[in-house]
Amino acid sequence: MSSILTNNGAMVALQTLRSVNSNLAKTQSEISTGKTVATAKDNASIWSISKVMESDVKGFQSISDSLSLGESTLAVASTAAEKITDLLKDMKATIVSAQSESANRATLQTDVDKLRDQIKTIVEGAQFNGVNLLKGTESMDLLSSLDRNSNGTVAVSNIIADRNDLTTSAGKLGTGAALTAPTVSASPVANTAKTATLTIAGSVAIGDTFTFKVGDTEVSFAATAATVANVATGLTSKLNELGLSGLTAAASAGVLTLSSTKAFDATALVASNNGSGTSTLSATTIAARAETVTFGTTAVAEGDGYRVVLGGQNFDYVAGKGETMEDVARGLKGVIDSAKVAGISTNVRLDSATNQWSLQIDNNSSTSRTLTASGAKGGTATGGLQALAGIDVTTKANAQSALANIETLIQSATSAAASFGASSSRVSIQNDFVTSLTDTMKTGIGSLVDADMEETSARLQALQTQQQLAVQSLSIANQAPQSILSLFR
User: Fold this and answer.
1) 90, 142, 173, 339: which could form a disulfide with 70 (CB 3.0–4.6 Å)?
2) pLDDT in tens, 103-162
3) Is 1 within the bounds of a domain?
4) Which residues fall in a coiled-coil region (predicted)?
């Protein structure tokens, strides 16, 4: 049946043309945008996932920029610390030269001062974008990653780069809770020889041989009379003939008294006899002349400060981050040495039996000085190179102290350089990872939303052909009602 009101063929052709035009419009959109999913209407789920991942990519790009900035900051600090280490080694060579009696110490001190000033200049200038990792103790936190969980929440990860204070600034003792005070061996510190008394007991036979070992030196005496006094006098003469530094002997009846003015070394005494007599000598030790400040074995926290009061003068050292009791002991040594108190010299020692560090303080002057020690929390850390300010080689005693202190300073600078290097390496590795991860995420996003241009191009050609055919079909269908006119001619 033919109808002039309803043209079924035209309607079918029109629907086909509309479908082709819709597909053609979508294909042209893919070609112009390069994406199969350009808007949420195209595929809401894929579009949502891609936008979340794109936001993560932008976040990682910002993280990479931050890591690059941190890497540059660490590189500056590492270079500065390494240069400071080299300068301290040069200073050590100068200090070693000052140990010689014939050295021109005034000229050598000038060299020390120039090196010290150069180190200070490097510390002040070792900054990048206003951040100086050689000053202060607060760590530098670098955002290193965004960690997206399966539930959609996001957490952040950080790389912590420690500062290493290489300034010469003095610490400030806190007013917080009191720390367990270091133990002081005695007070005052005075130029008084330490003594040990040995009593020769029992019978002595002529010809009995007595062997007496003082430290690493050994003497022997064969009794010429059958009395303990003869043995005491004979051993005394033998010991004094040796001229041992800081050690003298005296005899009274059967008692042998040894006196030592050795500042930091105890002297072990071991005696024995070989003969028909029954006389014996006991073993003992002469303590070092220096008094000791012995520290505990507890952990040290940042801001823990310790004070030694010597002759009414305060000497403070406040620990920085990650420091130990060894650092405290060596730090106090540097502070005291820097003050150049007349006759005062110091030494640091570890007791292997108790694992405790102690600071020995010796007084070689005629003025005795009281000695006390205390500790408190909440202080401002002392600069890692504080002792550098007091390096002095103008006298033999000062040069000897400087040699011990320079080793501590070199260790501080070396540790700082190593710390910066390790942090820099980690930041560099993380930055490389973030860059690679960003590229991988971009590839993943592209696989979700990017159009396959080869396929799209082929589809475009097909749809354009379909469009032309659909137009022809619609034209033919629209002409069908015209044939009805022939029925009325």
Assistant:
1) 142
2) 898 999 999 999 999 999 999 999 998 899 999 888 888 888 888 877 777 888 888 888
3) no
4) 81-118
Domain span at residue 137 reads 35-169+391-450
- Between the CA of residue 359 and those of 321, 405, 423, what are the distances in Å? 21, 13, 33
Same-domain pairing of 344 and 474: no
Residues 348 and 398 in one domain: no
For residue 282, pLDDT beyond 70? no
The answer on 300 and 274 residing in a single domain is no
Cα separation, 299 vs 123, whole angstroms: 29
CA-closest candidate to residue 136, choices 145, 149, 144, 127: 127
Q: From 97, 32, 178, select the one nearest 403 (Cα to Cα).
A: 97
- Element of type H or E holding 259: strand 255-260
pLDDT per position as a tens digit, 44-74? 888 888 888 888 888 888 889 889 999 999 9
CA dist 308 and 334 (Å) reads: 12
Please say whether the beta carbons of 137 and 320 come within 8 A.
yes
* Section 374-394 average pLDDT: 91
